[in-house]
Amino acid sequence: MKKKGIIFDLDGVIVDTAKYHYLAWKKLANELGFEFTEEQNEMFKGVSRKRCLEILLDIGQVKATQEQFDQWMVEKNEDYLAYIAQMDASEILPDVTKVLEYLKSKDVPIALGSASKNAKPILEKVGLLDYFDYLVDGNSVTKAKPDPEVFLIAAQKLGVNAEDCIVFEDAVAGIEAANNAKMTSIGIGDASVLSAADHNFKDFTEIDLGFIKNLLESR
Ligand code: B16
Ligand code: MG
């Protein structure tokens, strides 16, 4: 049996921070004089903060100097951090801890592969940091998903071949990144949106531990 490694995305997989990102972006949009809808926020999932702001300014047709751009990035993040500060274990998505516990019991190495620069404080706040052997986040990558960089670095840290890694992701770009890295991709969310994934589940409550056992024992 080959050694397997597991990689979790953060936002939308472990915790639902998309709602906080949305509120912080919406506040900025409103201050700049335009609306930003939850539907538009879908485009922001798995996308870097900088790219999100570029898209937001396109939506509002707002032109920014470099100085304004940098200032709005900081402003949005400060608002987002205020939401994160309130987080606790109750925000862990259902059955995520069950799967993490199972993986730990089988000594499977676990990494985080997230676009967020706030990944570590979020895992600390919800009390899950100790489950992770390595964190690869927005501070450690140069190329955004769907580039496979974030997951390839995670595989390297885990000491596992890319094709022996299993990735849990909620974003289209994240599934593409996992597929580009030749990893097994598991889509968490709407299967019609994440149709490129190797396996699809609405959330972790749908995942039977036997399914994970089979993945760990395959090939
Ligand atoms: P931050 P993930 C992503 O996290 C979010 O889905 C995306 O909406 C956000 O813009 C990005 O992190 C950057 O987050 O502003 O905290 O650095 O889904 O890759 O865990
Ligand atoms: Mg995500």
Report on the architecture of this protein.
The longest helix is centred in the middle third of the chain and has 19 residues, at 66-84. The chain folds into 2 domains: 5-16 and 91-217, 3-Layer(aba) Sandwich (Rossmann fold), CATH 3.40.50.1000; 18-84, Orthogonal Bundle (DNA polymerase, domain 1). α6 links the parallel β2 and β3. The mean pLDDT is 96. With 219 residues, it is α/β, with parallel strands linked by helices. Helices cover 43% and strands 11% of the residues. It contains 9 helices and 6 strands, in the order βαααααβαβαβαββα. The termini are close together. Strands 3-2-1-4-5-6 form a 6-stranded parallel β-sheet. The structure holds 1,6-di-O-phosphono-beta-D-glucopyranose (B16) and magnesium ion (MG). Magnesium ion binds at residues 9, 11-13, 45-46, 170-171, 174.
Q: Which assembly state applies to the chains in this document?
A: single chain
Number of domains: 2
The biggest beta sheet is recorded as: 6 strands, parallel
> What is the CATH-assigned architecture of the largest domain?
3-Layer(aba) Sandwich
Output the strand order for the largest sheet. 3-2-1-4-5-6
Structural class designation: alpha/beta
What's the gyration radius in Å? 17 Å
**Low-confidence runs of at least 5 consecutive residues:** none
Strand content: 5-15%
Please provide the ordered H/E string of secondary-structure elements: EHHHHHEHEHEHEEH
